[in-house]
Amino acid sequence: xxxxxxxxxxxxxxxxxxxxxxxxxxxxxxxxxxxxxxxxxxxxxxxxxxxxxxxxxxxxxxxxxxxxxxxxxxxxxxxxxxxxxxxxxxxxxxxxxxxxxxxxxxxxxxxxxxxxxxxxxxxxxxxxxxxxxxxxxxxxxxxxxxxxxxxxxxxxxxxxxxxxxxxxxxxxxxxxxxxxxxxxxxxxxxxxxxxxxxxxxxxxxxxxxxxxxxxxxxxxxxxxxxxxxxxxxxxxxxxxxxxxxxxxxxxxxxxxxxxxxxxxxxxxxxxxxxxxxxxxxxxxxxxxxxxxxxxxxxxxxxxxxxxxxxxxxxxxxxxxxxxxxxxxxxxxxxxxxxxxxxxxxxxxxxxxxxxxxxxxxxxxxxxxxxxxxxxxxxxxxxxxxxxxxxxxxxxxxxxxxxxxxxxxxxxxxxxxxxxxxxxxxxxxxxxxxxxxxxxxxxxxxxxxxxxxxxxxxxxxxxxxxxxxxxxxxxxxxxxxxxxxxxxxxxxxxxxxxxxxxxxxxxxxxxxxxxxxxxxxxxxxxxxxxxxxxxxxxxxxxxxxxxxxxxxxxxxxxxxxxxxxxxxxxxxxxxxxxxxxxxxxxxxxxxxxxxxxxxxxxxxxxxxxxxxxxxxxxxxxxxxxxxxxxxxxxxxxxxxxxxxxxxxxxxxxxxxxxxxxxxxxxx
Length: 666
Ligand code: AHR
Description:
By secondary structure, the chain is of the alpha/beta class. The chain folds into 3 domains: 4-48 and 556-664, Immunoglobulin-like (Sandwich), CATH 2.60.40.1180; 55-72 and 224-551, Alpha-Beta Barrel (TIM Barrel), CATH 3.20.20; 89-221, Sandwich (Jelly Rolls). The protein contains 11 helices and 34 strands. The strands form 7 sheets. It has an 8-stranded parallel beta barrel with strand order 2-14-17-18-19-20-21-22, surrounded by 5 helices. Helix 7 packs parallel to helix 8.
């Protein structure tokens, strides 16, 4: 969880990066037995299966990834439930917060607007998430729940005037809604704005003498990903789909743990009608005191149903992570009351069993029925479940064990994921792995946020892992260059390191970069895969590396050697090969982290004679500090060209500092 954002310095020192790179390579270069000129791929000897789940994505509501990000809602604090109920709102005239007879018992606060007769009026302004993005030509659904206490009957409505205000404080949309019931009623308005504004405000005025109560004010774009109701921002969701992810891990990360029991992530609070999903503070509101975000809460509008639906829509296996009874161990002492005692763990375990029923159970079951009522009678086919995030010590094991027993007893086909803690090695890691073997979990979640040197030196990390024990889920990783920028340097190091995932696909079954999203004006942690603001998106070089792996994963590992040995940094070359059985394509991924070009001859042993066509997709730059930003999103992109083999030979010229994916037709 440690992310040293105190180093919030700009980093533009490519020369220094090159020196680091050279230093990182030195040991491998010295150990090379002979100059590497030729690579061989045994096309006729397919090895380990590469799991369809191999390259996935990890979503956490950090950096405003959910509310203000992927979740398309435009109103912040729509239910007046933040600690300051008017956070996100500016009230004027006579507006108070009430809790008596609320519309939604689990979100009990609401606003009461009373007419004052004064020229200043009574109303509320919402600022959205650092502004509300309105695009001309698009339609938006405004809704709120309200009741009038005027008791005047239907003929004498109260009136709410709806306005959209631009950055120049000019009104660019106005309309009226009548409120005529003394009972909580949903009022709606379809808005087609006559102008665009990336940082608009919504204003609601009470126009008539009287008093109304108002709650759950929502402004939702009609255009969402797949046009889903209560849906997602299309550009961000499409970017996820375009990664071709095999697995979708949610909802975190540290937010699963919470810093207290009360604030932990509880999936049951995130399903059912959105209006009644209780708001929770987001731990990234306060985790880094030097980067405090008092307005960071979870509305849970993007909840477990929506996560499962998204996984299905992007073709990824859903992988929920559940709290194991421990609050964040970084933030709490081992004997804290914020941990659930082992003897009291049953409700937590029941949550896990109920989640499996929610995802997979028949519509006649309690939780299967809820899924069906929410719009998905068919099961979500949940196969993977992770218990605990970054936990460690006996505290974790004594809690994980009863989860494993209960899940195995009721749902033996569910693959259970335990964790190896927050560190990639060391005392806790060494304690946890044997325990995972003893508990016979199916996969172990490893995390590493490390330097470029670490990534380059550890491409053989999995070469000597136990082949018979649990499989590896590299559940959170990212190369942290100085300043934590998403530059090409970090992406290249990840590409090189990931060759080791693929070469060891018999051990590594899943991997997910972390974190996924970051709002440019509200982030807590970087680097992150995708950056965005209200209207724009920037896919980092790291994104394109993930995408190249996701789109070119293949189904079986092919042996790739140079001088009879696998290649994991020798002379600065990292390589792996795979066969894609459905297409018959041979895929060779190769990173050259040298500052010189390399010419290599590739022999595809077992390839039929004749010329074979293919494609080469490549990312390269001698500017290691190159980044894609919101203003310049296309600074570094993969480029594609055609290639042809000469029989079973292919001459390869690898540019300096490059990652290449060769895809050759069999
Ligand atoms: O990815 C950011 C954080 O890093 C995650 O919440 C946590 O699991 C890890 O410490």
